[in-house]
Amino acid sequence: MANIIDGKTILITGGTGSFGKCFSRYVLTHYHPKKIIIYSRDEFKQFVMGNDPFFREHAAQMRYFIGDVRDRERLTRALRGGVDYVIHAAALKQVPACEYNPAEAIKTNINGAMNVIDACLDTDVTRVVALSTDKAVNPVNLYGGTKLVSDKLFIAANAYAGTRDIAFSIVRYGNVAGSRGSVIPFFHSLIEKGETTLPITDYRMTRFWISLEQGVELVIKALGEAHGGETFISKIPSFYVKDLAEAMLPGCRTIETGIRPGEKLHEIMVTTEDAPQTLEYENHFVVYPQITYNDRQVRDLSGRPVQDGFSYSSGTNTQWLSVDDIRKRLENFDYEED
Questions:
Q1: Contact, 305 vs 278, CB < 8 A?
Q2: pLDDT tens-digit profile of 224-262?
Q3: Residue 194's pLDDT is what?
Q4: So what's the pLDDT on residue 182?
Q5: pTM of the full predicted structure?
Q6: How large is the average pLDDT for residues 186-208?
Q7: What is the number of domains present in the chain?
């Protein structure tokens, strides 16, 4: 797949976040991109990223562009001059913050998505991959609702491609293991403080396990294989949050605190309503759009249709991590937060 990345210029919105840094490291390690542009609004995070020894070593291929996805003109300026691919990772992601600041969530997650789409359509970008979330599936909170709208916008953007070689697609995954605000660094911080009791919202709660690197690999797959409108979803194992607590602090006491507002017992990636448009491949699923907008939007028929009524949920998954499995995955784990 080297020809997908080599010699290309890639812009990442929200590029100083966990995904953007991992994507940049991975691509610079395994491929030979012409340039990676970090587009974000926090100058300090860009300064810190730019002074990381790894990124200093690759300074000739790195660019840092201050800007907000709310600013369409700034986005368009950043995309002019030969950007080939855009990875849209910028979003307001914290559920309580979005509930308390709904207008701000809409401005970034919905209006910002529309700005990215318009800027890509008005420049020479050829591939756009937007990062989605399990919370966009049957949303129960504002964050999920805004990401559902964002997903729909990126899928429908293919209607405006015309004769251009441009494809908009989506990659969907849940909480990334170790990412900012997720349960692993939360438990780790409590353990570092000497706590012997870990809080669990519900003992039945399950989550999918996906690493940042797996998320990056799925995005690269989407860049190489998308024809427009697809939602790519990795096949990954599930775990019980109570088993994660035991793996991180053997013999610990746990306390059940109750599900928080906007929280789900299980992560869902594919709904039963999506099943008729879903094909299963060896290591992933693809949900194809119900409506195709141009003749380039074709299906990879090497996949097989899922059964009627199929859903992909962390609670009914066929792959599970035991306490020992989790413990092995946590060995040499990087708990660094953004």
A1: yes
A2: 999 999 999 999 999 999 999 999 999 999 999 998 877
A3: 93
A4: 77
A5: 0.93
A6: 93
A7: 1
Q: Are 255 and 200 contacting, i.e. CB atoms less than 8 angstroms apart?
A: yes
Q: What CATH number is given to the structural domain containing 126?
A: 3.40.50.720
Which tokens go with 285? 């699923």
Residues 82, 8: Cα–Cα separation, whole Å = 9
Identify whether 158 is part of a domain: yes
Annotation says 21 is catalytic? no
- Residue ranges making up the domain that contains 93: 2-174+211-235+269-309
Diameter of the chain measured on Cα atoms: 61
Does residue 333 carry a pLDDT above 90? no
| pLDDT computed for residue 39 by the predictor | 98
The 3-state secondary structure of the chain, one letter per residue: CHHHHCCCEEEEECCCCHHHHHHHHHHHHHCCCCEEEEEECCHHHHHHHHCCHHHHHCHHHEEEEECCCCCHHHHHHHHCCCCCEEEECCCCCCHHHHHHCHHHHHHHHHHHHHHHHHHHHCCCCCEEEEEEEHHHCCCCCHHHHHHHHHHHHHHHHHHHCCCCCCEEEEEEECCECCCCCCHHHHHHHHHHCCCCEEEECCCCCEEECECHHHHHHHHHHHHHHCCCCCEEEECCCEEEHHHHHHHHCCCCEEEECCCCCCCCCCCEEECCCCHHHEEECCCEEEECCCCCCCCCCCCCCCCEECCCCCCEECCCCCCECCHHHHHHHHCCCCCCCC
| Catalytic, out of 135, 147, 242, 264 | 135
Is residue 141 included in any domain, yes or no? yes
Does residue 335 belong to any structural domain of this protein?
no
Please tell me the predicted confidence (pLDDT) of residue 271: 94
Q: Which are the contacts of 296, defined by CB distance < 8 A and separation ≥ 6?
A: 161, 165, 167, 227, 228
Question: Would you state the pLDDT for residue 249?
Answer: 94
Burial class of 49 by CB neighbour count within 10 A (0 to 12, 13 to 18, 19+): buried
The answer as to whether 189 is a domain residue is no
